[in-house]
């Protein structure tokens, strides 16, 4: 039985991790930690878990975490995980980090976008970017996974087949993305209060969002060429879910059926990517509370334009579900265990 802990258990992703891991037949949840002044029953923090999870959530103690766990999920804010990772790796623990701290391989890029120097450059190369559809074989062999961001997961899965196949123009990619409010985490900020979100819809950080370099890094790695997308996120007045409309210029007119065939072949064996028929577009309710990414395609042959619609649940395939998917791969469990 694999012993698993969660550091940062009080957040949205921590709560989702607990729910998933409690139904995993190969896992025992043994440790919960968060920023607290004293230990507190997890059922008091999340009443829905009362009498379900018999654990206290307590201030982090690296020795206790190492003693009780084989693997730890770090559901911590960006720039915080790098304080914890070296201590855990030194004690021989495996780590799945849900923050951005180990996603970007260039520390100068990390500093530019997260406004803080990276404290653990030593371990950057050891972390595998945890997108199973691209890096499954590397994930199997690693003890360190950098779980992808929610926006990048939907974007990369929607874009990469077109660029790898060679018919998509890498210089003509525009991502129009929309996310539910839980994508911002539990931070207290006036802009996320119900009165400002409900019955409203707005864009933010157009082409300045910290997920831009992550998307560019992975698309560049996949195509062996520099990719620089236009990324425009928006806040939806819903709790969860991401829907991205992606515009990809085609190098030449490509038959719609050929484009569809490329995408279907690319994801043929993927358990959590569902391709829709041509012109059939996913909606949020198709994927919320699941670990699926649903992808729809529209091809305008005359305009030489591919429009991709990519939908995920930001807390599951965009965070905690994908983290457990990565754990399943690392330890040889069926990839779908506790997720489907």
Automatic annotation (TrEMBL):
UniProt GO molecular function: N-acetyl-gamma-glutamyl-phosphate reductase activity; NAD binding; NADP+ binding
SUPFAM superfamilies according to UniProt: Glyceraldehyde-3-phosphate dehydrogenase-like, C-terminal domain (SSF55347), NAD(P)-binding Rossmann-fold domains (SSF51735)
UniProt xrefs under Pfam families: Semialdhyde_dh, Semialdhyde_dhC_1
EC numbers for this chain: 1.2.1.38
Catalytic residues (positions): 150
UniProt GO BP: L-arginine biosynthetic process
CDD domains named among the record's database cross-references: AGPR_1_C, AGPR_1_N
Domain Semialdehyde dehydrogenase NAD-binding: 3-142
UniProtKB keywords: Amino-acid biosynthesis, Arginine biosynthesis, Cytoplasm, NADP, Oxidoreductase
Primary location class: cytoplasm
Protein's pathway: Amino-acid biosynthesis; L-arginine biosynthesis; N(2)-acetyl-L-ornithine from L-glutamate: step 3/4
KW Ligase (keyword) present: no
Catalytic reaction list: N-acetyl-L-glutamate 5-semialdehyde + phosphate + NADP(+) = N-acetyl-L-glutamyl 5-phosphate + NADPH + H(+)
GO CC field: cytoplasm
InterPro entries: AGPR, AGPR_AS, AGPR_dimerisation_dom, AGPR_type-1, NAD(P)-bd_dom_sf, Semialdehyde_DH_NAD-bd
Compartments where located: Cytoplasm
Function comment: Catalyzes the NADPH-dependent reduction of N-acetyl-5-glutamyl phosphate to yield N-acetyl-L-glutamate 5-semialdehyde.
NCBIfam families: argC (TIGR01850)
Classification via PANTHER family: N-ACETYL-GAMMA-GLUTAMYL-PHOSPHATE REDUCTASE, CHLOROPLASTIC-RELATED, N-ACETYL-GAMMA-GLUTAMYL-PHOSPHATE REDUCTASE, CHLOROPLASTIC-RELATED-RELATED
Similarity annotation: Belongs to the NAGSA dehydrogenase family. Type 1 subfamily.
Protein name: N-acetyl-gamma-glutamyl-phosphate reductase
Organism: Velamenicoccus archaeovorus
């Amino acid at each position: 039985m694999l012993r698993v802990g969660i550091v940062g258990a009080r957040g949205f992703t921590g709560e989702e991790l607990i729910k998933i891991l409690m139904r995993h037949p190969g896992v025992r949840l043994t440790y919960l930690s968060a920023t607290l002044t004293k230990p507190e029953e997890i059922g008091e923090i999340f009443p829905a878990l009362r009498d379900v999870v018999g654990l206290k959530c307590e201030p982090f103690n690296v020795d206790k975490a190492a003693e009780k766990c084989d693997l730890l999920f770090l559901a911590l804010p960006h720039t915080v995980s790098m304080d914890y990772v070296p201590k855990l790796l030194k004690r021989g623990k495996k780590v799945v980090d849900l923050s951005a701290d180990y996603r970007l391989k260039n520390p100068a890029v990390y500093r530019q976008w997260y406004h803080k120097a990276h404290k653990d450059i030593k371990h950057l190369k050891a972390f595998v970017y945890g997108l199973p559809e691209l890096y499954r074989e590397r994930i199997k062999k690693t003890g360190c996974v950098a779980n992808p961001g929610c926006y990048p997961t939907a974007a990369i899965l929607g874009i990469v087949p077109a660029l790898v196949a060679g018919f998509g123009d890498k210089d003509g990619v525009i991502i129009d993305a929309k996310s539910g409010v839980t994508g911002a985490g539990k931070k207290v900020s006036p802009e996320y209060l119900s009165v400002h979100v409900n019955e409203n819809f707005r864009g933010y950080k157009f082409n300045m969002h910290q997920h831009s370099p992550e998307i560019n890094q992975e698309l560049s790695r996949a195509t062996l060429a520099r990719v620089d997308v236009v990324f425009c996120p928006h806040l939806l007045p819903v709790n969860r879910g991401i829907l991205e409309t992606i515009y990809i210029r085609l190098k030449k007119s490509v038959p719609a059926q050929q484009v569809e065939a490329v995408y279907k072949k690319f994801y043929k064996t993927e358990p959590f990517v569902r391709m829709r028929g041509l012109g059939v577009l996913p909606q949020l309710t198709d994927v919320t509370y699941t670990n699926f990414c649903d992808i729809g395609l529209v091809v305008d042959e005359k305009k030489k334009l591919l429009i991709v619609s990519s939908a995920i649940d930001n807390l599951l395939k965009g965070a905690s579900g994908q983290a457990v998917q990565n754990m399943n791969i690392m330890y040889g469990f069926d990839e779908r265990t506790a997720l489907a």
